[in-house]
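User: Predict the full complex structure for these chains.
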Amino acid sequence: MGASTKRAVSGGLSEAQGVSEDSLRLYRTMLLIRHFEESVRRLAAAGETPGLVHLCSGQEATNVGVVLALAEGDYIASHHRGHGHCIAKGTPIDLLLAEILGKAPGICGGRSGSMHVVDLPRRNLGTNGIVGGGIPLAAGAALAARARGTGEVAVCFFGDGALNQGLLHECMNMAAIWSLPVIFVCENNGYGEFTAMEDVTAGPSINARGEVFGIPSVTVDGMNVRAVRAATLDALARARAGQGPSFLVCNTWRYGGHHAGDKQDYKDDEETKRWQALDPLITFAKTLVAEKRATEDELALIEEEVARQVKEAVAFARAAPQPALETLELHVHG
Amino acid sequence: MAEMITFREGVLEALFEEMRADPSVILMGEDVGAAGGVFQQTKGLFEEFGARRIIDTPISESGAFGMAIGAAMAGMRPVFEVMFGDFMTLCMDQLVNQAAKVRYMSNGAATVPLVLRTTMGVGAGLGPQHSQGFHAWAAHVPGLKIVVPSDAADARVLMKAAIRDDDPVLFFEDRLLYAAKAQARDADESLPLGRGRILRAGRDVTLIAIGRMVGVARAAAEELAREGIEAEIVDPRSLVPLDEALLLDSVKRTHRALVMDAAPLRYGVTGEVAAVLSEKAFDWLDAPVGRLGAVDTPVPISRSLESFVCPTPARVAAAVRKMM
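Assistant: Here is the predicted structure of the two-chain assembly.
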């Protein structure tokens, strides 16, 4: 199976479906994620982040294209490369960064860090340290929505590494037999840890993993925020109409390797250059200018504003205190 | 006078009552729907509550249990049935890495109000992969609560308490108790988890027993009484939270304790309880705290071999005599 960027789904569907797109919001959110992640990378290099952090620079279009298409009440479950999902779902970046640094005002009180951010008030079932761990959580939230008849949809994000977890296949099967309102989103960045997806993944295509359960499965250009958004809106429409799950395979790229500090000796430079030419921010900025939705100067102003926000978040998180010792044993049980 | 109910009926009544009272309670598991459960333990629920609340899952313990966790995080109160406790191993990642940690990881903002209900029991000739009780294993994981009822009346009220609890609760049912009867208590009675009870008063030794071992302790106590040794029987009912105060109070009066469990002895429940008593009641003890558990082997299928696996009344009585 190749990790090529097939453009099976074109952009612009959103407008056709009567859902207005706030292009600048898409752009701003992607930019916020990129600046945030680059700051985390610097903090990690300086030894300020406890544990491992996994950055999603390069994958902003899949994060934002999916999450900004959702309603506030819809659920997401994320994975270990999940800062972008949290930001897109609305977790304030200062509280998120404080959490990543394990500080008291962190969104989880400094006990969860990068890989275990749970923000249930924003319907985020959490980033997850177990590969594929978020998949049943999202499917279960969809089961709850179905049982209640309240109409929410749940999205589970996972990487190509999770394609080979049995959990995914169990949950796809159950989502299909029960027509659950869940969207399976594979962010295929070509590598599971340091191993190329092709080397460990059998079968004719990634889509086939969903098709075998009768789940509508599409390959999406994961570097194109509009393509991701359009595919998500299709899947949401199906889910809300009671037509069950969908599977989106978003081909994308992780700039920073597996974890912050990964030297990425396993990638070849040509491959990296090819993907960098598809950078979701650069290409979308060009589109916005070409469509006269913004001038280059206006986009530069947005970037200035975003950079300032992230700088403030970094200052806040670095200055924040460690959690008090008295909190260690809180919230094990109710 | 309240009616006599079986253990199986006790749990089932609790499910009916809690499901009628709270629409967020759902039941998930293999064959729990129209089939009524492989042990007839869910009979009638499907007819009353329908397929949206009584959910027959495929044989996918890991994924289905993970979905129960997600449903719990999204506002439901699932009761998830694992047909044989042995199959809990297939749920362990979900149980340990997700369910147990959500409250802690979310700093208290998210909870997982679910019950994992499962069966166990040595003595039915079911062999190495259909007899195990993993209550001690689960009790080692911070964030989980562990309930092991010993009779029908307790099974009913403890299941109600487990469903109402906001944390993940593991509810271990010994299949060999399923047909045993007890007098039901008032319909609306429930109790918080972590409250044990004294089942027999005695001055000479405290027998601490859970689940089916309570019956073994009773038989041993009768035998010992004929010899003039009066045993007190304490059933903690839940291992997490553990009613330490009740156990310590009893031991401080009797000055001797024997802890019993039907699961393997090594690194098990008995060791933990014995350590608590030794640390907190040392000055009151007239003998080292005794322990009896299952032999540290897989459970053999042979009836004659299997009958030697768990503590028996004779072995309990013999252990007590040695302590006197």
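Chain A touches chain B through 48 residues (CB under 8 Å).
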